[in-house]
Amino acid sequence: MNRVQIVAIIGSVFYLGLIFPLVFKRRIHEEYAILWLFFGGVLLIFSVWRDGLEYLARLVGIHYPPVALLLILIGALLLILVQFSVVISRLSKRVIELTQELGLTRHELEKLRGEKEKKK
User: Fold this and answer.
1) CA pair distance 7, 14, nearest whole angstrom
2) pLDDT digits (tens, 9 = 90+) for 78-102
3) Domains of the chain, residue spans
4) Which run of H or E residues covers position 99?
5) How far is CA 89 from the centre of its chain?
6) To which H or E segment does residue 18 belong?
7) pTM for the full model?
């Protein structure tokens, strides 16, 4: 085992060590944690399994196999960012709908209060 592989293993274990407590404490919802944990596992597997990493690097055309780990990491971050963008877009749309609904409800309430005051 060389120094790069040891650093990659330590980094992968540290990464998973950060994610697992957040999932167990429910600070990260399960739907988001799946990608984090999946890519943490993939990074750990390829950090330990050097032949698999070398095969993946050859398959992609990378001459220095540890760079393939960086490629996996960048891919993981891009997928997670896309997932967050979808969630943020959905939440923004929902906030707009709720704001409009609240405005209509307030308008109806003011209208009812006005009718009630006229009757007095």
Assistant:
1) 10
2) 999 999 999 999 999 999 999 999 9
3) 3-119
4) helix 66-119
5) 14
6) helix 3-24
7) 0.73
Q: Which of 40, 56, 55 is nearest to 8 (CA)?
A: 40
Instruction: Please report where in the chains the tokens 């919802």 appear, as a residue.
Output: 29
List, for residues 20-59, the tens digit of each pLDDT value. Answer: 999 899 898 888 888 889 999 999 999 899 899 999 999 9
CB 32 within 8 A of CB 23: no
Contact 58, 19 (CB under 8 A): no
What angle, rounded to 10 degrees, do the helices at 30-48 and 3-24 form? 160
**The token pair that represents 110 in the structure block:** 């003011």
* Structure tokens belonging to residue 26: 């429910």
Closest CA to 79 of 22, 16, 17, 37: 37
What is the C-alpha to C-alpha distance for residues 42 and 48, in angstroms, rounded to an integer? 10
Residue of 52, 24, 20 whose CA lies nearest to 36 = 20
**How many whole angstroms separate alpha carbon 86 and alpha carbon 92?**
10
Q: Which residue has the tokens 């009718």?
A: 115
Q: Which residue bears the tokens 């070398």?
A: 54
Q: Work out the number of other CB atoms within 10 angstroms of the CB of residue 87.
A: 13
